[in-house]
Amino acid sequence: MADGAAGGLAERAGARAGRASPPSAWAGRALSALDPLRLAGAALFLALWQGASEFVSPIILPGPIGVFERAAADFWSAPALSYFGLEDASLAGNLLYTAENVAIATLLGTAIGATLGLLSARLWFVRAAMDPVMMTAGTVPILIAAPFLLIWFGVGRASAVSLVTFYVVVILYISAQRAALNLDPIYENYALTLGAGRRGMLGAILIPGATPEILGGFRIALAGSWGLEAVAELLGSQTGIGKVIEVLAGATDPQGILATLLLLGLAAILADAVVTLLIGRLTAWRDPKA
After folding, report:
1. For residue 6, which of 215, 197, 289, 261 has the smallest C-alpha distance?
2. 97-255: CATH number
3. d(Cα 114, Cα 26) in Å, to the nearest integer?
4. Structure pTM?
5. What single-letter DSSP state applies at residue 285?
6. Any idea what DSSP says for residue 286?
7. Is residue 229 within 8 Å of 117, Cβ to Cβ?
């Protein structure tokens, strides 16, 4: 009878989790991204930027209009970049390379960090072994870790991906461990009462209960990965946004640097928006109106 009750609860929970959100919910999320206060903040920032650029030399602070025009002009083709030895003479190609590295590093780091974090929350010997390592790794500055990875993996993609993965693992390890430790024991006690085994509790209690906080940690890690990847490319790479910034800085081209940073920021914002929608979809079961 206990097995039957547990099965009924699992079936109802699965049906609710798999139910698609109504169009009105998706429309509400889309409209929330167009918050007037956010638009007003962006407009204020651009106005201040334009105003400041009127009082200083363009070599110090180019105006926003010129930066936007430069980003559009160099997006698909920037012949000047080929003179500096870049493999792809366009901002689009270098941005795609950076985005690929970020995607690989965040997905790989999330898989490793979340798995270790969940294990450490339930197995004391894993926590005793991993906590000192992760806490120490989290305090290592990127500028100190980067040279070692460049020596070990060279100046290619492997070193940049390894560096970003290293920090993503730390963030997701802490997020997953905290999520599992903060899970109310009453849920596992109920599952045991209904006859669930350890494997059943893992799939029905631990992972679903910790998923929202893990996804929140993933979003934080993704936001930081763009900057870490650019720094890794800046220190040693033949392509990518970081390399573009390096060569433009050497050529004293502030307008090009700001245009490159603008595209990097827009890519990070777009990626965060997509991840936010996916997180809302995956955790729709938490919203009784979804």
Report:
1. 197
2. 1.10.3720.10
3. 28
4. 0.78
5. G
6. G
7. no
Burial 148-168 (b: 16+ CB within 10 A, else e): ebbeebeeebebbbbbbbbbb
DSSP characters for 210-261? HHHHHHHHHHHHHHHHHHHHHHHHHHS-SSSHHHHHHHHHHTT-HHHHHHHH
> 88, 94 in Cβ contact below 8 A?
yes
Contact predicate 116/126, CB 8 Å: yes
Angle between helices 207-235 and 157-181 (to 10 degrees): 150
Distances from the Cα of 100 to the Cα of 88, 205, 226, angstroms: 15, 33, 11
Structural tokens at position 259:
């245009």
**How many Å apart are CA 83 and CA 281, to the nearest integer?**
46
Q: What share of the chain is helix, strand, coil (3-state, %, to 5)?
A: 80, 0, 20
CA–CA separation, 186 vs 4, rounded Å? 20
Quick one: which of 49, 40, 71, 64 has its CA closest to 264? 71
Confidence of residue 18 (pLDDT cuts 50, 70, 90): very low
Sequence-separated contacts (24+) of 264-268 with Cβ below 8 Å = 264/95, 264/98, 264/226, 264/230, 267/95, 267/98, 267/99, 267/226, 268/223, 268/226
Q: Packing angle between helix 254-282 and helix 91-122, nearest 10 degrees? A: 40
Q: Distance between CA atoms of 255 and 52, rounded to whole angstroms? A: 15
Q: What is the pLDDT of residues 144-157, one digit of tens each?
A: 777 777 777 777 78
Question: Hey, what's the torsion of the CAs at 106, 112, 114, 120, to 10 degrees?
Answer: -150
Model confidence at 159, in pLDDT bands (50, 70, 90)?
confident
